[in-house]
Amino acid sequence: MNNQLLVLVADDEPRITKLVALTLHDEGFRVVTANSGEEALRKAEEVRPDIVLLDIVMPDLDGIEVMRQLREWRPVPVILLTAKGSTADKAKGLDLGADDYVAKPFHPDELAARVRAVLRRAAGSPGAGVVRLGDIEIDLERRLVTRNGELISLSRTEWLLLQHLAANAGRVVLHTELLTKVWGPEYRDDLQYLRVWISRVRRKLGAAPGEPGPITTFQGIGYVLDIEGARQVSASPSADGPRPDTAGTGGMMPSSDAGASAAQPQAVAHTS
């Protein structure tokens, strides 16, 4: 059995795919390449890669559309490759669900380091078990979220946020911790970005607009997945940790503000 991680690289420039393939092969990865978006989708279905590197500009399907279709199958990590290096382009790619973004031209060592970092974040799923929130179940082992047995569709970023909150259910998770775990240390101060994504997760969990649902905001501190009245089932000794109103919050009182909606992130008046 081959334990090497598999990388799918899709770019319509053969010299780029060759460079990336050689670099990652030397770093111990298996690499499969594609020259178009359609070919990338076919190969992803065939080989089920551990991570996908996508050029944004391809002649048939662009990288954003390929990423969207890939995420309909499973939450595979994606790094976008593009000659567009502006802050706006980077923000757009990340906002649409990319795990990272590398602008061309790039140094091979930097690319390899980015791939390893994204894979570490993807593999660093804390704690297995099932967290139950009324009619919602968050299965950390199988990476599934259901309501009354019906699957709730989440983007990869939404899942990573919810996963980390659920693995620490009943405990306040700091803003900086969530930003670092999901997007990396370079985003640890982007609080507005975090608030927008938290609001999206809240809506997926059934919260009404302007309501926090099961994710409580602690002003200037972080968020807690409120499991009061619910329970977590896990083999971990710490699975049945203290409830939010006892330990884990240090006696802090949660903010009554529900947080920003994705469409109106400015609605949150919290400060870090």
In short:
With 272 residues, this protein is α/β, with parallel strands linked by helices. The chain contains 8 helices and 13 strands.
Structure description:
The protein has helices spanning 14-26, 37-47, 63-73, 87-95, 108-123, 156-167, 175-183, 191-204, and strands at residues 6-10, 30-34, 51-55, 78-82, 100-103, 130-133, 136-139, 144-147, 150-151, 173-174, 215-218, 222-225, 232-233. The strands form 3 sheets. The protein has a 5-stranded parallel β-sheet, with helices on both faces. Strands 9-8-7-6-13 form a 5-stranded antiparallel β-sheet, covered by helices on one side. The chain is globular and about 50 Å long. Helix 6 (156-167) crosses helix 8 (191-204). It has 272 residues and is α/β, with parallel strands linked by helices. It has 2 domains: 6-123, Response regulator (Rossmann fold, 3-Layer(aba) Sandwich); 130-267, Arc Repressor Mutant, subunit A, CATH 1.10.10.10.
Determine the CATH topology of the largest domain.
Arc Repressor Mutant, subunit A
What can be said about the biggest beta sheet? 5 strands, parallel
Q: Give me the count of strands.
A: 13
Provide the number of structural domains: 2
Write down the secondary-structure element order. Answer: EHEHEHEHEHEEEEHEHHEEE
Helix content: 25-40%
The span between the termini is 48 Å
Strand arrangement within the widest β-sheet reads 2-1-3-4-5
- Going by CATH, the architecture of the largest domain would be Orthogonal Bundle
CATH top-level class of the largest domain: Mainly Alpha
- Compute the gyration radius: what is it? 19 Å
CATH superfamily of the largest domain: Winged helix-like DNA-binding domain superfamily/Winged helix DNA-binding domain
- The unreliable regions are 229-272
Strand composition percent: 15-25%
The overall pLDDT, averaged over residues, is 77
User: What structural class is derived from the secondary structure elements?
Assistant: alpha/beta
- What gross morphology would you assign? globular
Number of helices: 8
